[in-house]
Request: fold
Amino acid sequence: MNGPSPLSLNEHFAIPGQLTFVARAGGLPLAELRTPDATAQVALQGAQVLAFHPQGSAPVLFLSRRAIYAPATAIRGGIPLCWPWFGPHPTDPTKPQHGFVRTAAWSVLASGLREDGAVWLRLELTDSPTTRALWPYPFRLTLTVTVSRALRVELEVHNPGDAPLACTEALHTYYHVGSVTATAVQGLEGVAYADKVDDGRRKYQAGPVTVAGETDRVYLDAPPACVIDDAQLQRRIHVTTAGSHSTVIWNPWVEKGRQMRDFGADEYAHMLCVEVGNALDNQVVVAPGDTHQLLLTTWVEPVA
Ligand code: BG6
Reply:
């Protein structure tokens, strides 16, 4: 196992009944967060939220039954963090897809309770010889996960160096849906998108987004809220953001899903990625000494 053991993490950061660290299969340390309203799990590898489960509702996040839990390996599901580039590296295809922080070992910085009973955990990652070999800049990232009736995930990107940091990024959220073909995303009507399954052609969204085949779209200058309307689970998942100008919608569908070694053949039907962040034309530049914030808040509204 990389980094401190669950035992020593519990000594420093556990909150009785609300936050505890455990080791998962593969030895990856995991934080379990609990309130009367919801539970969540966060892997220290990648600062990746793996589960969010409000009381009385089905799990909100999709996590593949074939996900691989191993050091330096991306976990299929939950909320991987793509940074400092989204998708393939812009000039060097040998560098990892979606950047390098989703597979890095993050440190625990702090934990606590809010006055309203929400529990939170803050993780940190800074540059190292390994990251500088892939991206030659100093950085400090913190990711704070707060669990209440809603899940709040806040990324802060601090530039401690003396050159501007240009980055693209995403909180690559995999939502669990009853049936993807009976699900619509509302709030992107009229927004321009790059269609990655059609050579990146620019198009405009007509009506709500529905999925009936491989779908991989980057919506640009997207509004800060959308809703995943799931007719089968009879619920609406609200997605709101700050600091995000791109929304990515992704479902691999049948063929691409089969090619993924960590994805079950039928799982495409029960997931939909709705990712908030900044990609393509919406690249972010963090000036020396500045901090950029990317915030996601998501919660479930049951529909009778
Ligand atoms: C999406 C991209 O965000 O992530 C897709 O738009 C990509 O193009 C998908 O296939 C999954 O990426 P990965 O590296 O986790 O398999």
User: Anything to note?
Assistant: The chain has three helices and 23 strands. The chain has a mean pLDDT of 97.
